[in-house]
Design brief:
248 residues, mainly alpha, two-stranded antiparallel ribbon, two-stranded antiparallel sheet, 8 helices, single chain, 67% helix
Length: 248
Amino acid sequence: MENPGFEFQEVSDFLMKGIELEAKTLEARTKIREISKSKYRQEWLDARLGLLSVSGHLLTSKDGVPGITSPQISERLTLIMVFLQGASNSEILISEGMYIKATAALKQDIEILARISEVKHQVAKPGKTPNVKHAPEGCQKIYGQLNDVAHPSNLYLLEALLDRRSAGEIHGISYIPVFVEESALELYELHVWLIFEAVREHLILFMEMYGEKDQAILETERWMANAVHMLERVGFQFQSGATEPQNF
């Protein structure tokens, strides 16, 4: 950083404020993560890891192995990789109390799934935002709810997810995140559902590319079935290939 005529100690003391801000935020996020994990259903945690392992197995098994391809297949594969690339970031935002940022990430996840469906049904419009009506059943209402929170103009919703501090007659908003149980649980359940949908699309795509009898495909099918079984135990409903969490 350039020194605009300040003394070294003055610069050092000033920049320390930014370091302290990030350190306090990180400390709070670490504590929130511990609380969040203790509140999540174990089936959510197990199913999430199992589902990501399905995609991991497909990718490692077929790394460098050519399969049937087309422009449509290439676009779907790209979208699935974008989803998987951001899965850990979505989890961090939810589990570490950054719920407002998390809603924006989950909105994009829904848009990715909508785009995959549009490409499959040949209704995708280049350069246009995917139409959420093409997302998995149940996403439409959820998308609107996420948009309400993610939109920066909804002050009352933003304030509800931030720590409010009082000092006499002065009321302020803290930058340090806090744990909000209802938000954490609902967003994480949605996150797991969206991962299931993305991994299901990944499996379907690889079936098209390598055939339903491919060994890697066969090996992952029982793991998918295991994830479905775990999620059904905690209220997920599976009908005609679609899933919808009980709480949404």
